[in-house]
């Protein structure tokens, strides 16, 4: 199971962008977006592993799906 990112670290990373106004709940939204991305990555990797008739999700399945999901997330 993944550990949560400490809120102080997350807030400091967000505040580095000084020219952007950040709301009070921005850290929670960032954490939720990361969790949603990881969930979709796991689902796509599971589908890729199933297509290759593999019982376990391997690193090659995640790498194959990662490029596609990052392109979708950016634009």
UniProtKB/TrEMBL annotation:
The principal location of this protein is nucleus
What's the domain of life for this entry?
Eukaryota
| Places the protein is found | Chromosome, Centromere, Kinetochore; Nucleus
GO MF annotation terms:
DNA binding; protein heterodimerization activity
According to the UniProt record, one GO cellular component term is: nucleoplasm
Keyword hit for Nucleus: yes
Q: Tell me, which GO biological process terms does this entry list?
A: chromosome segregation; kinetochore assembly; mitotic cell cycle
The protein's matches in SUPFAM superfamilies, at most eight in alphabetical order, are given as:
Histone-fold
One Pfam entry for this protein is CENP-W
Spell out the InterPro entries in the cross-references.
Answer: CENP-W (IPR028847), CENP-W/WIP1 (IPR052484), Histone-fold (IPR009072)
Q: Which UniProt keywords apply?
A: Centromere, Chromosome, Kinetochore, Nucleus
Which family, according to the similarity comment?
Belongs to the CENP-W/WIP1 family.
Protein's name according to its UniProt entry: Cancer-up-regulated gene 2 protein
Q: Tell me which species this is from.
A: Esox lucius
Provide the gene name from the record: CUG2
């Amino acid at each position: 199971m993944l550990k949560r990112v400490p809120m102080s670290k997350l807030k400091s990373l967000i505040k580095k962008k000084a020219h952007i106004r950040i709301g009070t709940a921005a850290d929670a939204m960032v954490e939720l977006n990361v969790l949603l991305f990881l969930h979709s990555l796991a689902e796509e990797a599971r589908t890729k592993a199933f297509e290759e008739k593999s019982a376990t999700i391997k690193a090659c399945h995640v790498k194959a799906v990662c490029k596609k999901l990052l392109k979708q997330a950016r634009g």
